[in-house]
Amino acid sequence: MKALQLKEYNHLEIIDAPKPAPKAGEVLIKVKACGICGSDIHGLDGSTGRRIPPLIMGHEASGVIEELGPGVKGYAKGDRVTFDSTLFCGECRYCREGHFNFCENRQVLGVACDEYHRDGAFAEYVVVPAIVLYPMPDEVSFVQAAMIEPLAVAVHGVSISPITIGDTALLMGAGIIGLLTLQVLRTAGCGRIYVADVDEGRLKQAMDFGATGTFNPKKNDIPEEMKKLTGGLGAQIALDAVGMESTVHACLYSIRKGGNVTAIGNLAPEIKLPLQHIVSHQITLRGSNASSGEFASSLQLIQSGRVDVDSLISKVAPLEEGADYFTRLYNREAGLMKVILEP
Q1: pLDDT digits over 306-319, tens only?
Q2: Spatial distance between the Cα atoms of 191 and 225, rounded to a whole number of angstroms
Q3: Triad 203, 204, 205: Cα angle to 5°
């Protein structure tokens, strides 16, 4: 089969790879669309340690069932499906409790690290466990379904955040995850949503998606602005879709006493925290890890039109052009956000 392989750091190449065969409980998927994730871009140069070459990356995907492995029931050849990139066992204590993202045997599609190697979906075919499959509604295209994984991350982050109808929210970051989180916050009933980013083009997109207002940290003191807009109190909820010390601090200082901060992004592995401010203001700071079964609700959000993913897709290109688009995304080409590759 044809595949886009990371042969060595900073070098992607189309190769002829062996077509995988499904084992018991697995299915073979003919890949129709696969999105280039920010984590793939960061993995390109080896900085994450999670994309050790040689590796076929890609985990935001959709396709058609080509073959069923032994014991798989409830699906048939030709079924249109998308699938969770978190490959969970379904048997450990966390899985039995419904916390699939905490699975003790968790692997991630398209990742190679010291613990495991799992080729992904930048290929004509990929094998995944049937337990992670989600049937696609006819109204959702393969390209749209390649956006389900990042949307599920946004849905998970919002779902674990205590939001009351009419709340004022601050959202740090207007990348793909941020703009999806903005739309999910609207469906969750937030009354006012303010978005911060250093990219003016992305801030414009945030307004198009229904943000109440925007801030640029290079121009605005975000905590001061948020207090002005809330009678000196601050927002009830803040979500950070970036993961840097400056963005987490902006969240912590922009919410009211007893407020909540949810960290979705984790760009920086470590940051300093203002402990006395957190304690004296009784702030709750929680992390949001990937997703945990939100694929079905994410499909419904796209199917119903309540979340627009089409406007976030910059380009749909053949797999052969993947190396070029990786380079362009790595170099932060202006106006280029989400690229979907079609094998």
Answers
A1: 999 999 999 999 99
A2: 17
A3: 90
